Amino acid sequence: MRAVVVHGAGDVRVDERARPVPGAGEVLLSVEWGGICGSDIAYWKKGASGTALLAHPLVLGHEFAGRIAELGEGVTGLSVGQAATVHPARPLGDGVLPERLAGRTNLYPRVRYFGSAAFDPHTDGGFSEYRTVHATQIRPLPDGVPTEQGALAEPLAVALHAVGRVPELRGRTVLVNGCGPIGSLVVAAARYRGAGRVVAADLASSSLAVARAMGADETRDLSAGEKLPEDVEVVFEASGAPAALGPVLRATARGGTLVQVGNLPGTAVPAALGDLVTREITWIGSYRFVEEIDDALRALRDGLDVTPLITHRFPLERAGEALAVAADPASGSSKVMLRLTAEPSEPSEPSEPSEPSEPAEA
């Protein structure tokens, strides 16, 4: 089988690997679609993602979906041919958390994640024609949800977890700063959870167009000199840019809530944080998700449309080009998808253009 493998900084290849065989308690997934994430880009560009350093070749990808091709011994409740996506996290150890963290498995100290070099040996991801997956990590897709959209259940779960960090959004005005794929999904998740009005801000007009298509009522183009709104009660910071923190804190209403979704640097950086104190802002972190992937699948079943997020589609053999487009701010890309089989079970709409470096219409 073919797999998208990063061998080092700037070195990604489509390698031939043996087709895996599911062990006891596992299924073999025939992977159809994968979505490129920032961590995939980081491993390709830098040979690292955060503190996880590439020591060996790694199959990329933690956003993927396909169809069950084979069941391992002892697997029940699933069937060959069933469409499914994957919860990419599996805690290591006894799974016991302190009482104060009960249920928050995303904060477990040691977690293997698909497509991650955090441990040695690394945990290969799903950008391959086949992948064995523990049955407990399989999430069947609801009827009517195609595998291309199912591949986006993972980032949608990240957005739903972030939105869920605020107890009640119904009827409230929300600001989302940073409209990359996660920020635009936060827009959709806030709308799905009943936000009254959603304002989205970014430096890129192409990202703002995606945010509008995902449900933003109003957009602010910061590159054109437009300012963030004032006194917003609930703000989601999805850019991860330290320079954005000062203006975002100033945009947050006195006594308001700021949810940090975008990953901030792990090194010292200058940032203007004074308003955090003087405005008594509640600043909350949001990391991955717990079981919100199930909520994401219900949202997709209920009609939450993630297709405006998809701007480019590439076949597996052009994975290097796909990563380059996803990493290039000038490309106008949002979510770049890899078609990991020659013929997915259901065609995407619109069908893949012959030159996928041209954006699909939002």
From TrEMBL:
KW Cytoplasm (keyword) present: no
The keyword Oxidoreductase is annotated on this UniProt entry: yes
Region (Disordered): 329-362
Domain Enoyl reductase (ER) per the UniProt entry, residue ranges: 8-338
Cofactor(s) this protein requires: Zn(2+)
Tree of life domain: Bacteria
SUPFAM superfamilies named in the record: GroES-like (SSF50129), NAD(P)-binding Rossmann-fold domains (SSF51735)
Pfam families recorded: ADH_N (PF08240), ADH_zinc_N (PF00107)
Keyword set, alphabetical order: Metal-binding, Oxidoreductase, Zinc
Family according to the record: Belongs to the zinc-containing alcohol dehydrogenase family.
UniProt name for this protein: L-idonate 5-dehydrogenase
Originating organism: Streptomyces ambofaciens
